[in-house]
Design a protein that fits this description.
This protein has about 400 residues and is an alpha/beta fold. It has two domains: about 210 residues, Rossmann fold (3-Layer(aba) Sandwich); about 190 residues, Rossmann fold (3-Layer(aba) Sandwich). About 40% of the residues lie in helices and about 15% in strands. The protein contains 14 helices and 14 strands. It has an eight-stranded mixed sheet, sandwiched between helices. It has a six-stranded parallel sheet with strand order 11-10-9-12-13-14, with helices on both faces. Helix 6 links the parallel strand 7 and strand 8. Helix 8 crosses helix 12. The radius of gyration is 21 Å and the shape is globular. The protein starts with a strand and ends with a helix.
Amino acid sequence: MKRVLVFSMAYLPLNVGGAEPAIHEITKRIDPSEIQFDLITCRYDRRFPRVEQIGNVTVYRIGLGITAPKPEDLRKFPLHLNKFLFQFLAPWKAIWLHFKHHYNGVWALMAHSAGVPGALFKLLHPNVKFILSLQEGDPIEHVERAMRPVWPLFTRAFTSADVIQAISTYLADWARARNAQCPIHVIHNGADLMDFDDALFSSERLVPICARIGKQPGDVFLVNTARLVPQKGWDTTIDALALLPPKVKLLVVGGGVEEGPLRERVAAQGLSKRVVFTGAVSSDEVAFYRRAADIFVMPSRTEGLGNAGLSAMASRLPFIGTTVGGMSEYVFGDDSKSSYGKTAWEVAPDQPAEIAAAVETILADPAEVQRVTQNARRLVEERFHWDAVAAAMQAKVFTPLFTTK
């Protein structure tokens, strides 16, 4: 049996993006008799225990916390200090745990938040294998600018890794640009498994959600379930809504740092009666809100992969999106662009008129919508399913790494 220590700034039940569920979905599919996982993360919420078992992962929480933090609190005092503290507290915690458990490998989830702890541990324990996972969704230039104060250690995360897993070709290219010399494998994330279960979302079960958002017969709801941050292009969708007829409305699922500015933008354009903000909701509820809507709109400005988009395609929603970063690996606006055919209606970033035109096109051609959404569903089932992701991690990362002398 092997033992692996994971570095991740956030982890379940706190869910701030697509990376945290990825660890859970992968580790729960790996037999504990083969690999057991420990994980060091921040204790953002004081209600969370310092040590907890979640599936095949023993979670150790460190750092500063408050009671029941909201998403926006993570960027405020004192919780915003965790990003700095984690870089150095996590390696010290890891050294203590390694003395106890004798790890075969360490696994850093995202270079910008956990690469430094991984690199420091590898520096002190060169015989322990080092896995680096790239899941970054923020603009690369923003990530690199933020890491300038610890640049030598940040770049060392790439150069000292024994293997790198990237969730898109876009991020794999970034690893090469940072002079990574180890094997680099593109292994995508998967869609939310709930979204594959069509029977779960019966019309009867969606009635309460439709009532909650005030959906009336004839309404057409646009939706996005990505984080409320600037790079997701929420402002572009709001501007597009202003170009569409009153029956078209927008469902904003979840919370985030941009909620206040987005509410102000909605009010300034006189759209308050056409936009519904749900506030923070559980991950299970997100899937039901998605199914209650009609068109998924994700005009991202940058994207590592875009887990929300994959779940939308699994949900059979017509998808309007850009092809920035990793989104180019599943957003195909033409039959000639993939063996699966057309999977989405492609738009450029910051182009609300293109979104509005795509919505009108979708509403005018139900037969084409059925064809395209079937293509997208087949793509996600075959290439972006967590069973396949976990199998690829085992075959390409863990097994070769731990059988190499």
